Sequence to fold (739 residues):
Amino acid sequence: MSGASITAEPPPRAAPPESGGEGRSRYRAGALFLLPAFILLGVWLVYPTIYTIVRSFFGQTGYLGSWVGIDNYRTLFTTSTLTTAIKNSAIWVAVVPAFVCAFGLLFAVLTERIRWSVAFKTVIFLPMAISAFATGVTWRLMYQQNPDQGAINALGRTVSDAVTAPGVLSNALPSTTSLQNEGGGLVLKTPLHPGGVALLGLTGIAPDDMPQGARQAVKPSGQSGAIEGVVWRDFKPGGGKPGVVEQGELGLPGVTVELKDSAGKVVQSEKSNPDGSFRFTGLSPGTYNAGIGAATFAKPFGGYSWLGPKLITPALLISYIWIWAGFAMVVIAAGLAAMPRDVLEAARTDGATEWQVFRRVTVPLLAPVLSVVFITMIINVLKVFDIVIALAPESTQANANVIALAMWRTSFSGFDFGTGSAIAVFLFLLVLPVLALNVRRFRREV
Amino acid sequence: MTAAPETVRLPARRDPASAKIVRSVGKLPLQIFLAVVALLWLVPTIGLFITSIQPSSEIATSGWWKLFSHPSQATFSHYSDLFHNAGLTAALKTTAYIAVGNTLLVVIVAALAGYAFAWLEFPGRDWLFIGVVALLVVPLQMALIPMFKLYDTLGIGGTTLSVILFHAAFGLPFAIFLLRNFFIGIPKDILESARIDGASEIWIFLRLILPLGLPAIASLAIFQFLWTWNDLIVSLTFNVQPITVWINGQMRQFSSSVDIIAPASFISLVVPLVIFFAFQRYFVQGLLAGSVK
Fold:
């Protein structure tokens, strides 16, 4: 991209022909002034274009005898890495121009109503100055899966923790077989009667993961009409005896302990004390099961794999929209500034709501500008390359593949210039209709 | 229509001061919304910068936002390390050569051609101009393979010049388009009187067109500079190592090289940002010239 891609403007009428006898020297001057440009354009654009088109019909070696007809193009649509690229590029074209236009329009219209619109526009436009490559690096940091590294997953964790708090003891395990796993929580195998005692021993808790304020665990003595118990870290330096509350073993505070009746229904639920003790009182006679609720063991939010095979393309699209929204905003804002104000005012005076003015007057009047932005974005998106290289880890680049990247990898990693040329021509053909569109406009207006 | 006209609803006529307050309070949700959007837009770049000043030991375990609670941990040692890294300084130099060389070349060549297309007479001029503008649509991917082979044959692959020339050619259609359209707006009388006084075309070009065309030339120069400064694909293809390619070489071990990649990326984007802030007006003008009539 050269920053802005272009829709050709009709040439303003050229200066009228000169009269006078110096015509010939003028011609020579014209030729001299144009020579450097035509050499560069001829050698670096015109010749390569013809070469690449011809080359796309030859095989890998490129010798005259290696004519393969349209085989390279067939490869393009049958090799899975290349069809993935085409499919992804189609997704890019379907998503990016629409979102970029929508954001640009939204920002352009809204900033007209605030005082600090220049500051706002500058901020949104800033990413346009940064290389797509540096943007890729920047967003790769944002997308790191570990919520301790990637800002987006850190935000996700904050939200997720607010909705469902992670368990106090997400990695804990029962210390004896008397505790059974049940629906994510643990339940004491042996049923209890009022007056009984529940010993809920857990291990596998790293010292750092111990809940704050834990104290020496106390073995309950039992009380009639109630079920007492303790939930504790059934481990001490040296090991200790499993299933027995010993000196040096800490209670686990804040654990949700549940009491279920014989039908399996939770009748009471308590948080354990700093020494790990808990007590269910006021129980009617019968059999009960004590256990620890599943919430205690809930795993913390591990982060979405933004850079993994499934989410890599959406991740790329978001970053790319972040870059280009500012472009759309600036162009659309210029279109808005040039819009006849009296038309908007007339609509407002007639009683149209702001939304109606926007929907029925502003947008239709902006249609030419919007279409320019839209077309520009289609072309840009088809040529996307740098950001994919920078943002997608090597392991998922195959999933993130796009046409321009496929062209480069086929040509300069695989050194298959035949297929590479075919991909380049395919890309050329995709952007060609835009040329036709522009030339038509150009000729109509000359 | 159900909505009453605004003039009736607001006490604007009678009490402008209070109306102003009412209006700005009414805009509060909008202000907050836009402030949040602006913040969201800034976060990634801020994150990159803060990561680049985090101690290496912290990068892997604590996110950059945690530096706000331990600001004393901030360190610029990664930057001083990088400036002592021969690979990076060489890459920076290469980037500067490419960007400056390309910008000069494009400006000169395009100004000459733009002048010819705007003010010199020769047959087929407007059709040639249309032809040049049409070349805008050629994606640079069309030229990578042939130029790679040609450079190889000529033995200039891997040189800064090979990249400069490639960029220059692909910058020209836009550059000529922009300058020609600007030059043609220069008042004809100025040129005519100079010609009558016997001035040569070169004199007119150097003394009249270039100074008068400065705003357009500035826009063009900024675009070219940023485009080439930020380029990856061209240099990568022709085995030249500007900063983008150098960083790309470090990307294989992203997690363990963040303390190199983040500061290097920030260095690479500081120059474009400075240019952008210094010449924002020209930048936007160039953009509009390119995309809106």
In short: Chain A touches chain B through 114 residues (CB under 8 Å). The domain at 42-153+305-445 of chain A is CATH 1.10.3720.10 (MetI-like fold). Confidence is low (pLDDT under 50) at residues 1-21 of chain A. The longest helix of chain A spans residues 23-55.
